[in-house]
Amino acid sequence: MRKLLIATTNEGKVKEMKQFLNDLPFELIALHDLDVIPMPPEETGETLEQNAMLKARYYATETGMLAIADDGGLFIDALDGWPGIKSARSFTGGQAAQDEKMLQALRDIPEENRSASFQISIAVHDSGEETTFTSSAMLQGEITLSRVAHGDLQWGYNSIFYVPELQKTYGEMTIVEKNAISHRGKALIKVKRYLQNQFRGKHFVVPIAFIVQDGLLLINKRNDPHNPHYHGIWEFPGGGVEMGETVEESLVKECREETGYDVAIVEQLSGPFVKSFTYDTGDCQFYIVPYVCKIVGGSLNPSQDEVLETSWKSFDDVLTLQKFPGDTEIMECVRSKFKKIVSEHSL
C-alpha cells in the first residue's frame, strides 16, 4: 500500500486529516512516524497556497513519499485581515496564551464587529510524477469575547473562533463535527476526491474482437513505445468502453479505428474475464469481454498510432504469440465455443 505523508508537526491537524482520509487506499504516515524527521522548510511564500505547495514539495522530495501539507490563517475583518498568513507566528507561548493575546488585540472591537474567517490551502505533491494538486477553502465565523476553554480541539485559535451555524467554537466540536463544516474539511473533500481519482484502483470494461475470415484470426502488433513492457506484443482489436457507449458500439468503433474494417458482431464468446494489474500509478482491473466478429465493409488500414503490423493467423498460431498477460488463458477458455461459432456461421 502506498504511503501518504501528512507533513505537519501539529498533532491536531494530523488527527483531523487521518480521520478524514482514513478510508483511502493509503498508509497514512505522520512526521513523528519517520525514523529521521526532515528539518522544517522556511515558509517564504506570500500566500497560503504558495506555502502549502512549498511544504508539500519539500517533504515529498525529502522522503520520497506522496506528501500532503497545508497553510492556514485567521483573517479578522476589523483588523484588515490580520494576522492572516502570519497567524501561526503572530504570538509566542502556549495556545491559551496566544488566544488571550489575540483577544487583547481585539479588546476595543465590539461584539457585532468581530467577524472573521479561517482560510486554508492544502497541497498534495507527488515527487515521482512532479505534480502538485491544491485545494483552498474558507469558513466565516466570529471571534468570541473570551476564550471558551473546554472541548477536545484546543489548538490554533479554535477556542476563540465561533461558528454561528453550530453555535459552538471550533474547540467545542468533535473532530467529526469540525471536519463536516470547517475550512479544512471543505478543502480536504476536494483533496480526497483528487486522491480517489488519481490513486484508487480503476476499473475498465474492454471488449475485444476475434475477427474471423476464412477461418483465420486478425491480430495486431501493438505500437506503444512509451510503455516498453507492452510495445511489440500481439493483441486483439478492441479497447476501453467510453462514457455513453455500449460495449458493442465501443467494439465496432475500435475495430474500425485500429484496422480500417467495418465489423459486425456475431456472438459473445464468454466472460467477462477479470484481469488485475498493479502499476506505479495505482491498481487497475480490466473486465475483458471477447466477441466473434466478421468483416462487413472497409479495407485493411491499420492505425499507425496504435499498430505496428497486422497478421491473419490460425487460432493455434495466435496461441503461441507473445500477448497481453492473461490473453492466452482467455483463448484456452473459449477455444471450444470459438470453433463451434466459426463452424455454425461458416466464417
UniProtKB/TrEMBL annotation:
Keywords: Hydrolase, Magnesium, Metal-binding, Nucleotide metabolism, Nucleotide-binding. Mg(2+) binds at E42, D71. PANTHER family: INOSINE TRIPHOSPHATE PYROPHOSPHATASE (PTHR11067:SF9), INOSINE TRIPHOSPHATE PYROPHOSPHATASE/HAM1 PROTEIN (PTHR11067). GO terms for cellular component: cytosol. Homodimer. This is dITP/XTP pyrophosphatase. Residues 201-339 form the Nudix hydrolase domain. The active site is at D71 (proton acceptor). GO terms for biological process: nucleotide metabolic process; purine nucleoside triphosphate catabolic process. The lineage of its organism: Bacteria, Candidatus Magasanikiibacteriota. Its EC number is 3.6.1.66. It catalyses: dITP + H2O = dIMP + diphosphate + H(+); ITP + H2O = IMP + diphosphate + H(+); XTP + H2O = XMP + diphosphate + H(+). Its cofactor is Mg(2+). Pyrophosphatase that catalyzes the hydrolysis of nucleoside triphosphates to their monophosphate derivatives, with a high preference for the non-canonical purine nucleotides XTP (xanthosine triphosphate), dITP (deoxyinosine triphosphate) and ITP. Seems to function as a house-cleaning enzyme that removes non-canonical purine nucleotides from the nucleotide pool, thus preventing their incorporation into DNA/RNA and avoiding chromosomal lesions. Gene3D superfamilies: 3.90.950.10, Nucleoside Triphosphate Pyrophosphohydrolase. GO terms for molecular function: dITP diphosphatase activity; ITP diphosphatase activity; metal ion binding; nucleotide binding; ribonucleoside triphosphate phosphatase activity; XTP diphosphatase activity. Binds 1 Mg(2+) ion per subunit. Substrate binds at T8, T9, N10, E11, G12, K13, W155, G156, Y157, N158, K178, H183, R184. SUPFAM superfamilies: ITPase-like, Nudix. It comes from the Bacteria. It comes from Candidatus Magasanikbacteria bacterium CG11_big_fil_rev_8_21_14_0_20_43_7. HAMAP family: Non_canon_purine_NTPase. The gene is rdgB. Belongs to the HAM1 NTPase family.
